Amino acid sequence: MHPAGRTRSALLGVARPVAALAVILLLDVVLAARDWPVPVLGALDEPAHLLTAWLVLAACSARTTALRLLPWVLAGAVLLDLDHVPLFLGLDVTATQSGRPVTHSLTTVAVLLAASAAVRPWRTALAGLALGAATQLLRDLSTGPGVPLVWPALWADVRLPYLPYLLALLALAVAATARRLSAGAGGEAADG
Hints:
Helix content: 55-70%
Shape: globular
Largest sheet: none
Structural class: mainly alpha
Low-confidence stretches: 185-192
Radius of gyration: 18 Å
Strand content: under 5%
């Protein structure tokens, strides 16, 4: 590759994690600006879930692993919110007063991980879904009314201030950027 192309590629590799962080922060500012109707909430929150999941994968996985996991991690990051559909249909599947369904817990992540260990042909897909669900919970801990994190052992909602989530995002963006820089031009990490 021509040196100018490597420089451009390296800059893009560094810019992606920073851009993901910036978009998440922008979405969160807009979300906090007022009370939104449910469809608008979803349209603002789901992209932030996807970007959070992408940042985790970009910071923690080698390129080949990330490329195999990426579609499953992204799916897990948003599919967990399908558990809200019964609520909109009038069915009570909540675990706590927050209104979060019981599937918004580490129990879901544990079930997916156990299934990934037990069902070899689906190991990558199920592990990716588990990681995506975990990133959903990471975000929901700080941006919503809380989650029944350790349900059924504890029915209480767990909620964290936004600052730990923000610091986690910053650390992920730094790690993803460092991974890209150390991998060379073009960033051999998760360029999904």
